[in-house]
Amino acid sequence: MTALPIIRHTGSEIGLHGRAAILDLTGAMYLPEDGVLLVADLHFEKGSSFAVRGMMLPPYDTRETLKALTRAVARFNPRAVIALGDSFHDIGGPERLGDEERATLARVQHGRDWIWVTGNHDHTLPDSIGGEVVEEMMLGPFTLRHEPRGGADAEIAGHLHPVGKVVMRGRATRRRCFVTDGARCIMPALGAYAGGLNVCDTAFQPVFPNGFTAHLIGTERIFAIARAMLCGD
Amino acid sequence: MPKAAAIALLPPEFRRWFKSRGWEPREHQLQLLAKARGGHSVLLVAPTGAGKTLAGFLPSLVELAGPSPSPLRGGAGVAKSERKDKSARDVISTAISSENGSPGRSTPNPALPARGRERRRTLHTLYISPLKALATDIARNLETPVREMDLPVRIETRTGDTPSHKRARQIEKPPDILLTTPEQLALLLAHREAGELFKDLRRVVLDELHSLVTSKRGDLLSLDLARLFKIAPYLTSVGLSATVREPDDLRRYLVPQRAGEGGERALADLVVVQGGAEPDIRMLELDEPLPLAGHTASQSMPAIYDLIRRHKTTLVFVNTRLQAEYTFQELWKLNDDGLAIALHHGSLDVSQRRRVEEAMTAGKLKAVVCTATLDLGIDWGDVDLVVNVGAPKGASRIMQRIGRSNHRMDEPSQAYLVPGNRFEILECRAALDAVHEAAQDTPDARIGALDVLCQHILGMACAEPFRLEDLYKEIRSAAPYAALMWEDFEAAVAFVATGGYALRAYERFAKIVKGKDGLWRVRDARIAQQYRLNVGTIVEATMIKVRLGRTSRARPGTVLPRGRSLGEIEEYFAETLTPGDTFLFAGEVLRFEGIVEDEVLVTRATAGTDPKIPSYEGGKFPLSTFLAARVRAILADPFEWDRLPAQMTEWLLQQRRRSVLPGPNDLLVETFPRAGRFYMTCFPFEGRLAHQTLGMLLTRRLERARLKPLGFVANDYGLAVWGGGDIAARVGREPGFLDDLYAEDMLGDDLEDWLAESTMMKRTFRQCAVIAGLIERRFPGQQKTGRQVTISTDLVYDVLRKHEPDHVLLRAARADAATGLLDVKRLGMLLQRIRGRIIHKPLDRVSPLSVSVMLEIGRERVYSDDADEILAEAEAALLDEALA
């Protein structure tokens, strides 16, 4: 085994449609020119959603997700936060939100704009959770929506929960990732219980007909992995 | 009891039947009859071929045949004259009298329902076997005496394959004897009719008990047994077992324990059949030297082939599926005589396995290459030779395998041990000594697992409402749970109800609820249905089907999934394959094409392709502590070397010249530089699982000591760690360095830190989560619903660990890790043993012993759970590509 070259990143900054975008270890993305923090697929209250069906998952997923969200907000202190859909795992999610979690959410929202883009899990959202609710929106050149459509738009979306898998000499690791072709980006799911879909799945093909790079979230930094190095499940 | 009196217990028609077969009832068969008459539970320990099964069923057949021929009945006569200690019967009476508060139990013992030709049909005997196939096999064997004596006995099996109308009828109109598996029994006991179905049950026969009790299935069965004893006042148990180290463990298992009372344990009676002729077992010795590593035993194949040719039927046991594939392949390369040599392992397609089994029973096969799936007691007819390829791993294991040849007790079994490398020669030698002394190394009795307890509690709630105190008492009457603390029981109940979290978020979704009457009951029928789907303790590694593909005519280069299914491989194995990889499976070299819709698509590799086996799972079973100690003793004592093949002596002498041979309790640590890196090897002989854990922890500690570890490999005997820092130089500066490095405190924080990341630990947690019912079991063939909708237990593990590190499920997982995939318990014993006994030998090049471990590099997987390291490597590959 040869010693590996240490690659210095300029943070985890990438270019997206000619603009700077900072990829955060939490899975959030910060657009410094707009002062906007983007997050996707928070899936709050997924645990309690399973409990309704008799699977008593540890009821701490919303807290964990909020913790990550709080960290990202503290790091960038954004003017606005935009959540790209499926922020709640189901329609009843906002209702089940615990008092403590509700308070934490209000604290993070305080002093900045907050926009909920709706998703397939949370196509309607009550006023009680604060912020503004939209179906999709424009931010500079980008269309922000839950489900990526591909085509000519420069879009930033979520929905697919991308994960990349790398196998090196029999050792495999599977991590959440940002997927981008330089013009558009699909963000990883931030929710503590949000699983992932392998980027080699055909679902990603129409969005990136000309290929992509996956930015895998490691333990201490983010790694840019070429399509050819990624394996299916 | 004098033999004549014993024979008198046998009704005339049975005596006639034995005679017509030219048999005489064996002593232990009559003993069991007497025990049954006296109302005793009993453990029968007997070698293969002793007529164990018939002995187990004889009392039931006699009772079912009609009124007893002598006045002996109930707890009278026999018990008094024969036993001084407290009989199992007494124990049962105690259990019954303690039930006096509950409805329907306060009445004095009613007269036993009449048995015989005009009786009411109730279930009389339950037979539990670890294998579905074994239950079916036994049912077939039982039919013979029943038919030949024209006994009014109905025998049925109940397995996962039994159609639903038959299942329903079995509850309405039960047979006299029902043969089933532990999982099916759990399902029956969770049925609302369970009390009615089992109340007149007289006997439960537990076959292959030695193998059942070593696993979580044994835990589950013990709980079910406790419930049976509670339901059926006249129940006695019969355990059938191969020879074990501690028969008392099994005797306790068979009868209800009196919980709480200072250490006094109830024991079933014991009947032991001494082994017949001593087995004729030897090591296969070759003229050419064996390699220093590897398990394939490739040099020995011609000799094994020759043995097969010279015997009637041979069983060739190997330790792993891959080894089975390899051995089968090699034997066929030599098979100029076209001998009927077949392959059998658990991953093959069921229909293919059945074909092999049928051919075997029909005596059409010359040899079968098989794994542990054939370890258990199915009767394979006339096997006259057992060959064990690779390391024996345990003395008892090897004896049970050898017992598969010559099913007649008075003839010696023939067997060969075939070592694959030089260390395995030592292991074979140690095993031969153990067999010669009839020494056993079966594992210790288990402490009942908490995840199994959770599953059982839900099942009991499905059967009928329960009071917490009553269920606790019942559960503690099961031997593995005799020491269960009330707090743990409560935690398990809380888990079943709402997950048992400190944050009480799920009260309104509770699965079991306590009513105003103080009884706990299941919330609704849907939860009961969920229980039924998730019952059982076997959580296989998720398997994925292997399908043969055809090259598309229309589009050359495209492979279509049009061929037949070959069997299943573990998902994690499939995940490490990349298209173009070749591997051995189902006796062929296959080329991996990709995963298409939940199936591994393969094509046949072109003839002559050497399979690349990326994941060689070494010994599936770790070397037993007992054999390990013997191996160390042989190594340490030059007088012992005389009994080893000459090539070994030469090798050991070289090791002594170039380095040192450690004493039986020492740990030899060698350090040496090689090709720009620094290596450290050590030889604990504690099995690969414990070594893997040790390797993980050592690399963490070396990292912290800034010695830049890069990787390690482990096998059953030792491990090698390498890196960029010079460990020997460090030891030179800091003489206590190695003692600190190998100090027991690595099982504290270092272990905890590693467990957070460990894939092995996550796999262990997943199994506990499925067994306990936290998440639903995925069934083979069930459509994967996409990862967004299902839940990954890895994520649950992360969250739970952060918030409730002492949650009952994490405790269950840690208990498993102690003995299972991580073998922490054994590592702890090792670290304790070597305290102050580390012998460091700084060398300038690799020693003869170390070569054997070094050879595993490239053959064994290099372990690392460090995701960043893997990712950095992949990223660098992108860079290389860009620069090229």
TrEMBL record, chain A:
UniProt cross-references to InterPro entries, sorted A to Z: Calcineurin-like_PHP (IPR004843), Metallo-depent_PP-like (IPR029052), PdeM-like (IPR026336), Pesterase_MJ0037-like (IPR024173)
EC number: 3.1.-.-
Enzyme class per UniProt: hydrolase
Chloroplast is among the record's keywords: no
Domain Calcineurin-like phosphoesterase: 36-124
Keyword Mitochondrion included in the entry's annotation: no
GO MF annotation, one: ligase activity
PANTHER family registered for this protein in UniProt: BLR1149 PROTEIN
Protein name: Ligase-associated DNA damage response endonuclease PdeM
Biological source species: Microvirga alba
TrEMBL record, chain B:
Helicase ATP-binding domain sequence ranges: 33-262
Basic and acidic residues bias locations: 80-89
Regions of compositional bias (Polar residues) in chain numbering: 94-109
Gene Ontology biological process terms in this record: DNA repair
Superkingdom field: Bacteria
Any one GO molecular-function label of the UniProt entry: ATP binding
Protein name: Ligase-associated DNA damage response DEXH box helicase
Origin species: Microvirga alba
